[in-house]
Amino acid sequence: MREAAIVAFAQSASLRREMDRNEVEILIPVIHELRTSAGLGNEDIDFVCSGSSDYLAGQSFAFVAGLDAVGAWPPVCESHVEMDGAFALYEAWVKIQTGSADLALVYGFGKPSMGDLPITMALQLDPYTQTPLWPDAVSMAALQARMCMEGGVCSEAEMAARAVRDRRNAKQNPKAQLKGDFEVEALLAEPHLVSPLRRHDCAPISDGAAALIIASAERARQICQRPAWIRGFEHICEPQDLGVRDLLRSRSTELAAQHAGANRGKIDVAELAAPFTHQEILVERALGLGDEVSVNPSGGALAGNPLMAVGLARIGEAAARISSGEADRAVAHATSGPCLQQNLICVLEGD
Amino acid sequence: MSEDASEAVELLRIPVELDYTYSAGQSASRFLRAIAEGRLLGQRCPVDGKVYFPTRGSCPQHGVPTAGDPVELPDRGCIVTYSIVRVPSENIPLELPYIAVQVLLDGADTVLMHVLGESSLEDVHMGMRVQAVWRPRGEWTTSIGNILYFKPTGEPDAPYDSYREHI
Prior knowledge:
The structure holds 2 protein chains of 2 kinds. By secondary structure, chain A is α/β, with parallel strands linked by helices. Chain A has 14 helices and 12 strands. Chain A is 35% helix and 20% strand. In chain A, the strands form 2 sheets. Chain A has a 10-stranded mixed beta sheet with strand order 3-2-4-7-1-8-12-11-9-10. Chain A has a two-stranded antiparallel ribbon with strand order 5-6. Chain A is globular and about 55 Å long. Chain B is mainly beta. Chain B folds into 2 domains: 23-73, no CATH class; 75-167, no CATH class. Chain B has one helix at residues 26-35; strands spanning 40-44, 51-52, 58-59, 64-65, 71-73, 76-85, 98-105, 112-116, 129-134, 147-152. A 5-stranded antiparallel beta sheet of chain B has the order 8-7-6-9-10, with no helix packed on it. A 3-stranded antiparallel beta sheet of chain B has the order 2-1-5. Chain B has a two-stranded antiparallel ribbon with strand order 3-4. In chain B, a hairpin with a 6-residue loop joins strand 1 and strand 2. Chain A binds chain B through residues 18-22, 24-25, 28-29, 31-32, 35, 42, 55, 58, 67-73, 113-116, 119-120, 123, 127-128, 131-132, and chain B through 12, 14, 16, 18-29, 56-65.
């Protein structure tokens, strides 16, 4: 495997609604900050890869406009995934593995506040038998949460404890959207949003963007004093139909973690992009995270959920903790599809 | 629908209707508010000083945020290229044939797409000097449609070298 590392990271604040900036205008300062902090010009970048969704933008080929933030001169080698930017990072990592790039700029951006997000998400389901019923994303997650509670995976109090932890951690994160001190009992006194889920069980709807630089070993050392080396990287997909999956565990996270070697060493930090509290528990269990692991020091997706950027931001947050010396080994998670259908695990290590 | 299992389902209607609250963005909004007052705004790239029209938040060539005050441009320029359109389009209410033109406004480095009026199909040519014909002031809105069309000014043609870069 060719050594590659995350060497720089930038992100916007997660906001419930960007009032006057469009998607690209959210991205522009993030890319600018990233390149300035890494001291890179466009001529230094071999490959550009992005993650976004035209369904969030409500315009076809909206992602092409994202290149306005990057600049396309000299002509750039560019690709895009209709997924979270974490999966764009995977593509860039593969590109580096093949030797056809040494340094890549990866970004993800989304402005879901423009539409009705839970309904828009129904478009990722089977177009013949599921989408026509328009099941919204929160209701689908609620079905899974109910199964998890009745199947002994977790209780409402354990779920609320995740929201309490993540929002408390997010107090240290100036980019987070939901933060503060909450009590489990007080949260459980709140009404259900979609039973058994309460508002705190659901990640917020957030507009935002994230971007990072991935570099081969030679380039990484020139840019960053302590690069966050990618020592394992895998994503695994389960069937789309909920009826044929085991919803009480995240089999694809387990497999991705296994292939990426997540448990080959002590994990200091885990950054998870699970958008519901019970899913965060499922991912924690799939990774086998114990009490000694600092889970979601940034607050995770439950504290800020810029769709299409939230997974990439988890990798960036984990990498930043390696580069700062706070952690030696970190695991970052990203997800796609209904109820944790597809999961990505990235294992990062310091020198 | 047939009960015969051997018959293929050939048609399925699944109406998709999604509503969006769309924001033009800061840069486009600035442009649109200005054109509602009859002003044309561009924006300068901080790297090479080129003027983008309309205003935009970044230079798409260099990928840097555009900086400084917008640049106000005159409503005249020259035709960089043109096409005579003889096929109808659902959302274009113009009478056929009409002349679609790319106009390079004086002081701008990007071209504007519009139509040419008050000119015969035989007269239009590259380098032709043109100016905007505006709707009556009372009808101005936040729309590029405030300019009805461009018309020839009768000035001598712009030299080829002045617009060759934009072809």
